[in-house]
User: What shape does this take?
Amino acid sequence: MNEKKQIKKQQLFCGMIFYSSLIEMEKELNEINYVIIKGEPLSMLAYGCYGNRSFHDIDILIDRKDVPAVNQILNNHGFYQLKRELTRQERIYANQAHQTFSYLKDIARNTIVVDVNVDIFWGEYEGKRVNISDFINNPNKLNIYGFNAKVLRPMEALVALILHHYKELNSLHQLARGEHPYKAKLFKDIYNLIENNNCISAKEFYDVCYDYEIIPYAYFVLYYTNKYIGSEVLSDYLTLFKTEEGVNLLECYGLTNRERKKWKISFEDRIKATNLFEIIREDLSQEDIHKIKLQKRIFNNSNERIEVINNGRKID
Assistant: This one.
């Protein structure tokens, strides 16, 4: 068996383990307004089958008001959160984040991980917020390894993916983690989601992004997707989405106006670089460094523990 087939086989196996852990709570979850995002739903939408994307958790998107109910459901079915001592500043920061702390469940030699997301924007986002209840109110249904899941429709999935990928490419925290955010899969996800869903037209997607006031972020991701993939499919999108603000973002990193800085290297060099943090380190302010350390103290510990338990396997 070649390496690609072996990886896909492992991803399918891990997917079955992860999603089977949700079957027993399906009825309770259906009483909540929720959707499963990224992971296997995105694999099906973008590639037409499961197992085409590696993942290490199951991401649930809900309205913030439903966190207590989902917390109770997960606790009732053996999921737990790592106990941690946080300072007052850390608690405030954590409460403003786009997700709660990860929920874990130990099954045999694996740790199942569920992330509960309450926003499609990053915590520091300064613009207009999307009403999550409305955003997920009319989901599609998808059977994922026996679990009948609520999932985003293609248009909403593309919106959520655009914002997620913009965050991944620009977050100081992500750049400081040592994991290279400029990965092929990031651009392939966007391209294939558009290419394989004829119901997403450039004009309709533009109208949705205009309403959500995210045109510059969408242009950024679409521009670099086209630059990486080199396809004419995105030409209509780029013509529609091009704005001065979007163009100005292309050579920058950072999620807020306060922290945004110019790259010293080209996109091509960013793709090749093995450690982008070393390239930007000297340009970061003390405030930037403090924020990175704060995020690491709050969110990285659970990720490191999960990776150790699962022997470093990616079961994104």
Observations:
- The longest helix spans residues 286-309.
- The mean pLDDT is 89.
- DSSP finds 16 helices and eight strands in the chain.
- The first strand starts at residue 34 and ends at 37.
